[in-house]
Design goal:
It is a single chain. The chain is of the alpha/beta class. The protein has 2 domains: 219 residues, Response regulator (Rossmann fold), CATH 3.40.50.2300; 146 residues, Response regulator (Rossmann fold, 3-Layer(aba) Sandwich). It contains 11 helices and 14 strands. The strands form 3 sheets. The chain has a 7-stranded mixed beta sheet with strand order 7-6-8-9-10-13-14, sandwiched between helices. Strands 2-1-3-4-5 form a 5-stranded parallel beta sheet, sandwiched between helices.
């Protein structure tokens, strides 16, 4: 078995097709399966960033190659693809991608064992850096930050004093997010009227005898289940605002939903056509030129920012050495991303970034505002 494994790695290395003078970036995204709604836009953003860099001469005078592998939303496939990427010759100088915490924890240790960093573009668990020390970075804020922003907005702006909490009990992301929301909401003086877990799309049992509350915090992960869950809540007679996290920000999720109203979610950026921020306007224009049938969402911008962060780190390192690149990424300060200014403070591999709040009204998205929470629960 060991001989066969070594043979397969040698074959992968021998057949990579990349020239030694090229700099390879490896990416893992799920183009199929439940995570595709988040990862397809993100992978497109990453492709756009690399294409723009190459159009401007590449990096260190060399062209970039982006090798994206489909993890199929399955841990076993992600593990295999990460291993195969690192067996290439030349091997990627870094790996990045993925929007799911559990899948990141499958891939990142493999990169770390090969002394290469893994930069997750969309997995938001603030526990991740400690789980893979030194080598795992986030390009996004942590769940404790977005949950605190949601709780403060609900309490201060919506005057919510009671909340019903519903969460997918099968996913790390959803369990963490609801926990951080509860902690901050109760700190502010709010109370939790009810808390119910559910398994994936099996939401119906959690809706039995729900008490009335000022707001429902709905912590779901898979976009299709989120849409079904919101519909079921309304059918069950829940009329108060429904509040969720960045998993609600999936392209097409709220299209053709004219009856959906009073749904809010935290996310990484607002990319609507009415956002006239120059960097957003430029990104929308470039993205839609590359993908005429698609509209960028926050996950597209996260993939774009993650790839650009790595390219910037290579430039700052002035080297394609993986260790030097990792140190350069850790030293990044005031990087101007589409999803906000990104800085890694000393000893932290989670950037400090504001949280965007969006409202779904009549099938359209509206910017509520950007928020930096006053207090954030510990990871």
């Amino acid at each position: 078995m060991i001989v066969r494994f070594i043979t397969l790695l040698a074959l992968a290395a021998a057949t990579s097709g990349y020239a030694e003078e090229q700099i390879v970036l490896g990416a893992l995204y799920n183009s199929t399966g439940p995570q595709a709604g988040l990862d397809v836009p993100s992978s497109r953003g990453a492709r756009l960033a690399v294409a723009e860099a190459n159009a401007n001469g590449g990096v260190l005078g060399r062209s970039l190659v982006l090798d994206i592998r489909n993890g199929e939303s399955k841990a076993g496939v992600v593990k295999t693809q990460a291993t195969e990427l690192l067996a290439l010759d030349p091997a990627p100088v870094a790996l990045f991608g993925l929007s799911d915490t559990d899948l990141v924890l499958t891939a990142a240790p493999i990169a770390a064992a090969d002394k290469r960093l893994f930069l997750t573009s969309g997995a938001t668990s603030p526990l991740l850096p400690a789980e893979v020390p030194e080598y795992l970075f986030l390009a996004c804020f942590g769940d404790n930050v977005q949950a605190a922003a949601a709780a403060e907005w609900a309490y201060n702006e919506q005057r919510a004093r009671t909340a019903v909490v519903l969460f997918d009990s099968t996913q790390t992301y959803t369990r963490l997010l609801k926990g951080y929301f509860k902690t901050r909401f109760v700190q502010l003086g709010g109370s939790i009227a009810a808390e119910h877990g559910f398994a994936s799309d099996m939401l119906d049992p959690a809706l039995v005898d729900l008490p009335k509350a000022d707001i429902v915090f709905f912590s779901g992960e898979e976009p299709s289940n989120i849409r079904k869950g919101v519909s079921k809540l309304r059918e069950a007679g829940v009329t108060c605002p429904i509040l969720g996290g960045d998993s609600f920000d999936s392209y097409g999720l709220w299209n053709n939903a004219p009856k959906v109203d009073k749904v809010y979610y935290t996310t990484h950026a607002y990319l609507g056509a009415d956002n006239r921020a120059p960097k957003v306007v430029a990104f929308r224009k470039a993205f839609q030129a590359a993908y005429p049938d698609s509209v960028p969402d926050a996950f597209a911008a996260l993939g774009y920012d993650a790839a650009r962060l790595l390219i910037h780190a290579i430039e700052q390192a002035k080297s394609d050495d993986p260790t030097t690149i990792r140190k350069a990424l850790a030293a990044t300060r005031n990087f101007d991303g589409v999803t906000g200014t990104i800085s890694y403070s000393a000893g932290s591999r989670i950037p400090k970034k504001p949280v965007t709040l969006i409202r779904v009204a009549g099938g359209k998205l509206e910017l509520v505002g950007e928020f930096t929470p006053q207090q954030v629960p510990s990871p």
